[in-house]
Amino acid sequence: MRSICVMNQKGGVGKTTTSVNLAAGLAKQGRSVCLIDLDPQGHASLHLGVDAFGQTPTVYDVFSGKKTLAEVKQLAVDNLWVIPSDLDLAATEIELVDAPGRELILRGAIERLVQTQPVDYIIMDCPPSLGVLTINALTAAREVFIPLQPHFLALQGLSKLFETTALVKRRLNRELIVSGIILCLYETSTRLAADITDDLMRFLEQSDPQAPWYKARIFDSRIRRNIKLAEAPSFGQSIFDYAGKSSGAIDYGALVTEIIAAEAGTVAQPAAA
Asked: Does the chain have fewer CB atoms within 10 Å around its N or its C terminus?
């Protein structure tokens, strides 16, 4: 099983879009996937048509000890289960402030889930912050994927993300690595995107071998700007179901192929644009 935390404390970089469409793409390839929505806004849940309302159990009930993940999960599409979220989750930051072992709650919940329902992938969509919910995800995951918009200011924020992963690796999760960076909202017509990508590659190549991001790869698949990606959530569908022939579907399909190919030690063939 691969447990992947998708994180970036900067909003609007394609984090939830990536979490949802990566999960949906892997499910379409026959992998069993559990997507955990850790953002109190619940956008990943809504993106897949899972609306947590009324008495619907959510991941908040897991953090409060009332439910297990198995009792909360909902089947969104074939092979893809969603652990939904809602605004109640925002209270977790305050409610757990003095709780012993608060950073380990999600790890324990996932361990209990996979004992009864083994899955190929656990994907965690983190909130745009570095609070207790994100720390729980980093403690539970083995890998971190960072969606990144190739702009100068986005690179500045990346250093804080790296510092957080290093801290969690040192204190809470020795297995944690930053395994991939996904370039989103990519504009092929500008020189800036290529320059930022080159700068990032040089930084990674010069990284300390003890750092969690040492040998992190920048995925070859670039997620281009595409209006269909913005429209899909309002229909409660992944990009593959909403607009399967759009450039957004092609790009995320290529990313999924690249991730699966890396597991098998083969080279992914680029998808046709």
From this structure: C
Give the long-range contacts of residues 228-236, CB within 8 A, separation 24 or more.
229/14, 229/17, 229/21, 232/47, 233/17, 233/20, 233/43, 233/46, 233/47, 236/46, 236/47, 236/48, 236/49, 236/50
Neighbours of 73 (CB within 10 A): 22
Per-residue pLDDT tens digits of the chain, which is 273 residues long: 999 999 998 878 889 999 999 999 999 999 999 999 999 999 999 999 998 777 889 999 999 999 999 999 999 999 999 999 999 999 998 899 888 899 999 999 999 999 999 999 999 999 988 889 999 999 999 999 999 988 877 777 788 899 999 999 999 999 999 999 999 998 877 788 888 888 888 888 888 889 999 889 999 999 999 999 999 999 999 999 999 999 999 999 999 999 999 876 544 444 443
Residue 155 burial (CB count, 10 A): 15
Tell me the domain boundaries of the chain.
2-264
- State the maximum Cα–Cα separation within the chain, in Å, rounded to a whole number: 52
* Helices of type H across 190-268: 191-205, 227-231, 239-242, 247-264
Residue of 110, 90, 162 lying closest to 4 (CA atoms): 110
Q: Helix, strand, or coil here: 155?
A: helix
For residues 21 and 66, what is the distance between their CA atoms, to the nearest angstrom?
Answer: 30
Residue entry with tokens 């559990």? 34
Q: Is the distance from CB of 49 to CB of 234 less than 8 angstroms?
A: no
Q: Reduce the DSSP state of residue 130 to 3 states and report it.
A: coil
Chain position carrying tokens 């607009």:
243
Confirm whether pTM is higher than 0.85: yes
